[in-house]
Design goal:
By secondary structure, the chain is mostly helical. It has a single domain (16-134), classed as DNA polymerase, domain 1 (Orthogonal Bundle). It has five helices and two strands, in the order ααββααα. The relative contact order is 0.14. Its main location: nucleus. It comes from Cajanus cajan. This is ALOG domain-containing protein.
Length: 160
């Protein structure tokens, strides 16, 4: 249950599958280097949160602290010492890929640490904090009903 098998040359994996395999191998390497080393089976939501915090050091998204004068400004006018972190969207996508990889590698859905409540709450908090720090809201976009213009012969007549 440690690595994702690679496919043959005739069946080239998709970009998503390649990324999922790389993410899974990175997580397994993180567990191997953990003190004490952990197996995937012994991993919990708390270990997933440690991994996400560890990844923050490689982030490229400026997240202003509440004491920063640019907190809440989408386009700050000058540099500041606030840390770079992983963007919420990147973390959310990563957790989705790792959640799928866990089950593909023999893990049971009910014991999946990537679906733990603590992980979901953490992602929610990161999303909200990053939105406030940048002055951007993550409102869910409403889906507009599709209008079939070709099916309506009077579409151009009613539009004018």
């Amino acid at each position: 249950m440690e690595t994702v098998p690679t496919s043959t040359a005739t069946n080239t994996p998709s970009r998503y599958e390649n990324q999922k395999r790389r993410d899974w191998n990175t997580f397994c390497q993180y567990l191997t280097n953990h003190r004490p080393p952990l197996s995937v089976a012994a991993c919990s939501g708390a270990h997933v949160l440690e991994f996400l915090h560890y990844l923050d050091q490689f982030g490229k998204t400026k997240v202003h602290s509440p004491t920063c004068p640019f907190f809440g400004l989408p386009n700050p006018p000058a540099p500041c010492p606030c840390p770079l972190r992983q963007a919420w969207g990147s973390l959310d996508a990563l957790i989705g890929r790792l959640r799928a990889a866990f089950e593909e590698n023999g893990g049971r859905p009910e014991t999946n640490p990537f679906g733990a409540r603590a992980v979901r709450l953490y992602l929610h908090d990161v999303r909200d904090f990053q939105a406030k720090a940048r002055g951007v809201s993550y409102e869910k976009k409403r889906k507009r009903p599709k209008q079939n213009i070709a099916a309506s012969p009077n579409a151009t007549a009613t539009a004018t």
